[in-house]
């Protein structure tokens, strides 16, 4: 089946609400810790702290409803820091990306330094829609890891320390396979179910989707069970296999396309034989998996700004704007791999 690239079970996303300048220090220390967990060498943890500090300072000084999401990259190889807000947007983006540019009145100060330090920097901004910034950081010998066309955010319910959701992504051959799992309920027992599912997935992410789901079902029998969504992306087409309320949505610049949810049941408790549903993926289209901690009504009429977001920003945008605070929330967004030469 070819060599596959997989990850150990990842930690949930660190979510920092930036509603006061005191959050800047927390953001910097969190980024430094995550960089260490990702194995980034030398001065890179300190550089991650600088990126987080600059982005958090911008949010604290100028934005509305700002937040940072800090985590490992979906396919490993480094980390990312994503800033999201509902502020006024950046009016002079090109000027703000000049190193040394500073202002006391406009969102965007410090972005030049972030651009210089980060391996890749992706920004989308518009009046009325706010600003999204993704800064990815990798070691010099793994810089290509920053270009993976995927984004994922997994955050726990409010007042919970652990997330009962989980997600994973694996590349193999010309395909990539994604998992979103939502442990029944939330809290430690739901988190245990999610981790069991992630470990089972990583044993063979390139197997046929019904085989993966059946293996997950067996592994989850010792837990409270979970909703599971499996997505396999091929060039120009995708396959979905799931049980429970994990949704899949195809999104292009024109709007949502195919929308599916899993067959009835709970993996680990009761599940009918898995079925695979196939659908096309238009050129440039993104396919999302998300748990029910994200309000499904986001897909009824997403704005042009949201429809054009790359995967690295789309996942953060949906969690930031459409999560249901009393539930764990996960979004994994990805595009098919480019055809291998």
TrEMBL record:
<feature type="domain" description="PPM-type phosphatase">
    <location>
        <begin position="148"/>
        <end position="336"/>
    </location>
</feature>
<dbReference type="InterPro" id="IPR036890">
    <property type="entry name" value="HATPase_C_sf"/>
</dbReference>
<dbReference type="InterPro" id="IPR039248">
    <property type="entry name" value="Ptase_RsbX"/>
</dbReference>
<dbReference type="Pfam" id="PF13581">
    <property type="entry name" value="HATPase_c_2"/>
</dbReference>
<dbReference type="InterPro" id="IPR036457">
    <property type="entry name" value="PPM-type-like_dom_sf"/>
</dbReference>
<protein>
    <submittedName>
        <fullName>SpoIIE family protein phosphatase</fullName>
    </submittedName>
</protein>
<dbReference type="Pfam" id="PF07228">
    <property type="entry name" value="SpoIIE"/>
</dbReference>
<dbReference type="InterPro" id="IPR003594">
    <property type="entry name" value="HATPase_dom"/>
</dbReference>
<dbReference type="InterPro" id="IPR001932">
    <property type="entry name" value="PPM-type_phosphatase-like_dom"/>
</dbReference>
């Amino acid at each position: 089946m070819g060599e596959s690239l997989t990850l150990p079970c990842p930690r949930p996303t660190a979510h920092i609400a930036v509603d006061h300048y005191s959050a800047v220090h927390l953001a910097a220390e969190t980024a430094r810790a995550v960089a260490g967990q990702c194995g980034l060498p030398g001065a890179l943890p300190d550089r991650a702290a600088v990126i987080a500090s600059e982005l958090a300072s911008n949010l604290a000084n100028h934005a509305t409803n700002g937040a940072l999401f800090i985590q490992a990259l979906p396919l490993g190889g480094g980390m990312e820091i994503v800033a999201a807000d509902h502020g006024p947007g950046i009016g002079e983006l090109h000027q703000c990306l000049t190193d040394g540019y500073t202002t006391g009145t406009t969102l965007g100060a410090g972005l030049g330094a972030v651009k210089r330090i980060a391996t890749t920097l992706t920004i989308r901004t518009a009046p009325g829609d706010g600003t999204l910034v993704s800064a990815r950081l990798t070691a010099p010998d793994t810089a290509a890891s920053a270009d993976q066309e995927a984004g994922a955010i997994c955050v726990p319910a409010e007042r919970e320390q652990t997330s009962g959701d989980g997600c994973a992504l694996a590349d193999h051959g010309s395909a990539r396979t994604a998992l979103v799992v939502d442990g029944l309920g939330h809290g430690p027992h739901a988190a245990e179910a999610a981790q069991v599912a992630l470990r089972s997935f990583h044993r063979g992410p390139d197997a046929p989707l019904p085989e993966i789901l059946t293996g997950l079902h067996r592994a989850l029998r010792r837990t409270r069970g979970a909703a599971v969504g499996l997505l396999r992306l091929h060039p120009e087409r995708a396959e979905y296999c799931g049980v429970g309320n994990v949704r899949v949505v195809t999104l292009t610049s024109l709007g949502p396309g195919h929308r599916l949810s899993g067959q009835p049941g709970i993996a680990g408790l009761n599940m009918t034989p898995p079925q695979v549903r196939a659908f096309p993926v238009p050129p440039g289209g993104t396919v999302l998996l998300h748990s029910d901690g994200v309000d499904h009504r986001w897909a009824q009429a997403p704005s042009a700004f949201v429809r054009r977001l790359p995967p690295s920003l789309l996942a953060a945008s949906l969690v930031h704007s459409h999560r249901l605070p009393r539930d764990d929330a996960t979004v994994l967004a990805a595009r098919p791999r480019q055809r291998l030469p």
